[in-house]
Structure formats: structure tokens, C-alpha cells
């Protein structure tokens, strides 16, 4: 099977699963949350998998999109779909303002992105800005509540995210990004515009998180700052990507299916041991499978989409 067909097959099967999933298992919130985490994991994948930058503060873009979309709905009375697009654009602008962080590398970049997300969180939740963001009291979108439409919009965002990852997986642009990840100096000497490529991946990743945040805000309709700026959102998305393997379309999908399924199973069957079991799994992953499950197939010569 040609590479493009493999990626198209994975994309269609994934979207079909979420399209009919609520008819197989009626817990719509679980399916919606799974789409949110899968889209965010692919957003992390676009940045970390293809450039090597690991953003611990990725949730900052998610929260920015959630708040921006909510304010566009409540203050400017925009249609929710237009407001979600506005949330994505706002996250892109914030990403552009924070693009100097890309001058950092390794742990310094991760910590810098984390500090930036906390800065946005404390700004949004500041009681002095209650007239603008409602401060610590959160947002109420009950007047716009429509779980069926928000589910469909989230499915469309997921399709866009998967298509973007599939494009990077097999395009010259994705190959150039991976070259900058492996050796930026050699890539620059080969004529690859390293800075422009990194900023493009950073902004695409930020936009995806903003769109997902807007759809999430519309779906749950009532939320607080610590809901959409919760660092666990970043951690889950990162772990799903690392477990499956970066720079691939299939890796974050496998990571989300296995670990999110495990997360729900442990949380229901043994909630008192949830954090312990999940923590041990993450440690084992880092120690024995640092490049994710997909690396096992690559070692055997399989071309993983």
C-alpha cells in the first residue's frame, strides 16, 4: 500500500470511529474528551515529533482558545463556529508573540513555555480583570449550549489536525522539519530555512490547540480558569504522543487509545491506585521505550504512517 493511502486509511478509520462511536457506546462526553486529547496530542506531535521542542505549557494555547472563543460569543455575539475560528486565530497571535521562546532549546524551552502558560492563566484569572474575563469566576455559555453541533465541529477540527499531521509525515516540509530536529546546523547549510520552519510548526501547533479549546468551551458551556489551564491537559497530550511515538500519524492515535482507555479503566475500577499505576507506567515508558511503540515497528523495517 502506498504511503499516502496508508495515511488516508488511518485517517478515515479514526474519523469513522468517532463519527459512529456514540452509537456503539452512548457516553458522548467520553468520545468528545478522547477527540480533544487526540487533537492535542497531534498538535504536540507536530511541534515535538517534527522539531524536537517539547512544550510543557501547551495548555496555555488551549486555554487561550477557550477564553477567546467564549468572549467572542458572549461579548460580540458571534456564531459559535466563527467564535471557535477566532479562538484559533487568537491562539496563533499569542503563539506569534511567544515565538522568541524558540530561541531556547531542551529543558529551557519546556520550562519557558510552562512559565508563559502560567502567565496567561494568572492574567485571565486576575480578579482585577473581572469586567473582561470574569476573573476567577469562569465563563458561562449555557445560552449557546449545543452538544450535537459542538461534537460535529470537534470532529471537523480533529480531521484537520490528522490531515495536517499526515501531510507533514510524507511531505518535503515534514522532511525538512525532521532534518532541523536532527541537526539544525547541517539543515541550514543544506538551504533549509530553519527558523521559518520551526515558527511555522509552532504556530500550526498553537492554532490547533486554540481551535480545540474553543470547541471544548462550547461543548462543556460552563468552565473556570483552572479547568482550561490545567497542566494535566499538557501532560496527558505529551504522554499520549510519547507512548505512541512522535513524527507519525499513527503513534499519538495508538497512545491515546491505549492510555486513555487505561485511564478510564483504572479510574473506574481502582481509583485509589490510579495515580500510582499511571505514574509507574510513565516511568517504565521513559526508561524502556523512549521513542514510543512505533519505534518497535520501525526497527523491523515497517513504514509506519
Structure description:
By secondary structure, the protein is an all-alpha fold. The chain has 15 helices and 2 strands. Strands 1-2 form a two-stranded antiparallel ribbon. The N and C termini lie close together (11 Å). The model has no long low-confidence stretch (mean pLDDT 92).
Which helices and strands, and how do they pair?
Layout: H1 3-24, H2 28-51, H3 59-74, H4 80-97, H5 106-124, H6 130-133, E1 139-140, H7 147-170, H8 172-182, H9 184-189, H10 194-220, E2 222-223, H11 225-228, H12 231-244, H13 250-269, H14 274-288, H15 294-299
Antiparallel strand pairs: 1-2
Pfam families: BPD_transp_2
InterPro entries: ABC_transp_permease, LivM-like
Transmembrane segments: 80-99, 144-168, 199-221, 233-263, 275-297
How would you summarize this macromolecular structure in one to three sentences?
The chain has helices at about 5-25, 30-50, 60-75, 80-95, 105-125, 130-135, 145-170, 170-180, 185-190, 195-220, 225-230, 230-245, 250-270, 275-290, 295-300; strands at about 140, 220-225.
Order of helices and strands: HHHHHHEHHHHEHHHHH
Instruction: Tell me what the CATH architecture is.
Output: Orthogonal Bundle
Structural class by SSE content = mainly alpha
Number of helices: 15
State the share of residues found in helices, binned by percent. Answer: over 70%
For the terminal residues, how far apart are their CA atoms?
Answer: 11 Å
> Any idea of the CATH topology?
ABC transporter involved in vitamin B12 uptake, BtuC
- Please tell me what the overall shape is: globular
Low-confidence stretches: none
Radius of gyration: 19 Å
> How would a textbook summarize the main sheet?
2 strands, antiparallel
Number of strands: 2
Strands side by side in the biggest sheet: 1-2
- Percent of residues in beta strands: under 5%
Rounded mean pLDDT score: 92
CATH top-level class: Mainly Alpha
Amino acid at each position: 500500500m502506498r504511503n499516502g493511502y496508508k495515511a488516508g486509511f488511518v485517517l478515515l478509520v479514526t474519523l469513522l470511529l468517532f463519527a459512529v462511536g456514540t452509537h456503539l457506546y452512548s457516553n458522548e462526553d467520553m468520545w468528545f474528551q478522547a477527540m480533544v486529547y487526540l487533537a492535542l496530542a497531534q498538535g504536540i506531535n507536530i511541534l515535538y515529533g517534527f522539531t524536537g521542542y517539547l512544550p510543557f505549557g501547551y495548555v496555555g494555547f488551549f486555554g487561550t482558545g477557550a477564553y477567546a472563543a467564549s468572549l467572542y460569543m458572549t461579548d460580540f455575539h458571534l456564531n459559535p463556529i466563527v467564535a471557535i475560528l477566532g479562538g484559533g486565530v487568537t491562539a496563533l497571535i499569542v503563539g506569534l508573540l511567544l515565538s522568541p521562546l524558540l530561541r531556547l532549546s531542551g529543558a529551557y524551552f519546556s520550562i519557558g513555555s510552562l512559565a508563559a502558560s502560567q502567565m496567561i492563566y494568572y492574567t485571565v484569572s486576575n480578579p482585577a480583570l473581572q469586567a473582561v474575563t470574569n476573573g476567577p469566576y469562569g465563563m458561562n455559555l449555557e445560552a449557546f449550549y449545543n452538544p450535537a453541533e459542538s461534537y460535529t465541529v470537534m470532529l471537523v477540527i480533529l480531521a484537520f489536525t490528522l490531515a495536517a499531521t499526515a501531510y507533514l509525515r510524507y511531505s518535503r516540509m515534514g522532511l525538512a522539519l525532521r532534518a532541523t530536529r536532527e541537526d539544525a546546523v547541517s539543515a541550514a547549510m543544506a538551504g533549509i530555512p530553519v527558523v521559518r520552519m520551526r515558527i511555522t510548526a509552532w504556530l500550526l501547533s498553537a492554532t490547533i490547540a486554540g481551535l480545540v479549546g474553543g470547541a471544548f468551551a462550547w461543548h462543556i458551556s460552563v468552565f473556570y480558569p483552572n479547568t482550561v489551564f490545567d497542566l494535566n491537559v499538557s501532560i496527558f497530550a505529551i504522554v499520549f504522543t510519547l507512548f505512541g511515538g512522535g513524527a507519525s500519524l499513527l503513534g499519538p492515535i495508538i497512545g491515546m487509545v491505549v492510555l486513555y482507555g487505561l485511564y478510564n479503566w483504572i479510574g473506574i475500577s481502582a481509583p485509589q491506585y490510579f495515580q500510582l499505576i499511571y505514574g509507574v507506567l510513565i516511568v517504565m515508558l521513559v526508561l524502556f521505550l523512549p521513542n514510543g511503540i512505533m519505534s518497535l515497528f520501525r526497527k523491523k523495517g515497517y513504514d509506519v504512517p
